[in-house]
Amino acid sequence: MTEFERIVILTGAGISAESGIDTFRSAGGLWEQHRVEDVATPEGFARNPDLVLGFYDARREALANAAPNPAHLALARLEREFSGDLLLVTQNVDDLHERGGSARVLHMHGELKSALCQSCETRSRWERTMLDRPPCPVCRAPTLRPDVVWFGEMPYQMGRITRALEACDLFVSIGTSGAVYPAAGFVQEARANGAATLELNLEPSEGSHFFSESRHGAAGQLVPEWVDEVLRG
Ligand code: BJW
User: For position 34, which CATH number holds?
Assistant: First the structure.
């Protein structure tokens, strides 16, 4: 692993599973409890805003009782100690990477603790509920929505991610099913540019066959082991 100088890491819900945060597609996961079309699309929000605001309020509240696990901590250690370039991209809307010590995290699907005003388009840090229609801190309109990326919307910072995938020599995917694009296509973009590709996931993901190496098991064990390997040199 020592030969790598530019690493891009993509994380998904599986990295936070051992912190007690529900994943989406597992048995008993969020998509068994709610219809995706109802809670994770702009159309669902337009149809029933109370349902969607309540869904995200409950997840924001659950986050308060969760703590980062050894996988989050290991990636923070990698950021501190790796001498090359590192980009950590997460599809997760939780803040467990930051609370684990990562200072630079790109949240491509937004953040639970951020509000997007539909009137003035300002993004504001947000820790409270939205179901009660609080005013936007900037324009005072009661038009806040969760600052998350729903199906049919453009994920954040795609230009920066694409450039990093073009330049990286290692792409690592951790705890994601590979079911949602554009993130699911990152492995092929990195491979097309000659990067090595590694998957760390509980089970083979939908795109497992695209990776040059796959390791299967719990992120809380696999990620610290892999970080040790990289830093041992
Ligand atoms: C463990 C573990 C442990 C468990 N240790 N592992 C191309 C083809 C087909 C369709 C499309 C396409 N391009 C776009 C689309 C449409 C659509 C899409 O992908 N649809 C699919 C259903 C096919 N995509 C979009 O609409 C996206 N926008 C877009 O494409 O814009 C246009 C565009 C064009 C060109 C370039 C760029 C853009 C937007 C997608 C938004 C997704 N939003 C959500 C909700 C966010 C807010 C919220 O959190 O509520 O994001 S959906 C949900 O899925 C969430 C997640 O971030 C995302 C991925 O889920 P993830 O993280 O993979 O979780 P799971 O549960 O699926 O998997 C967990 C994995 O962990 C499993 O494998 C477990 O085994 C594993 N695991 N415990 C290690 N302890």
Answer: 3.30.1600.10
Going from the C-alpha of 140 to that of each of 46, 60, 61, 126, 132, the distances in angstroms are 21, 22, 24, 14, 14
Same domain, 99 and 201: yes
Reported as a pLDDT band with limits 50, 70 and 90, residue 2 is low
Put simply, whether the predicted model's pTM sits higher than 0.85 gets the answer: yes
Whether the CB-CB separation of 73 and 226 falls below 8 Å is answered with no
Residue nearest atom 80 of ligand 1, based on CA coordinates: 218
How many domains does the chain divide into? 2
Q: Residues with Cβ within 6 A of ligand 1?
A: 12-14, 17-18, 23-26, 29, 40, 91, 93, 109, 148-155, 158, 175-177, 179-182, 201-203, 205, 218-219
End-of-domain residue from the set 148, 177, 209: 148
Q: What is the pLDDT of residues 14-38, one digit of tens each?
A: 999 999 999 999 888 999 999 999 9
Range of the domain at 56: 23-65+111-148
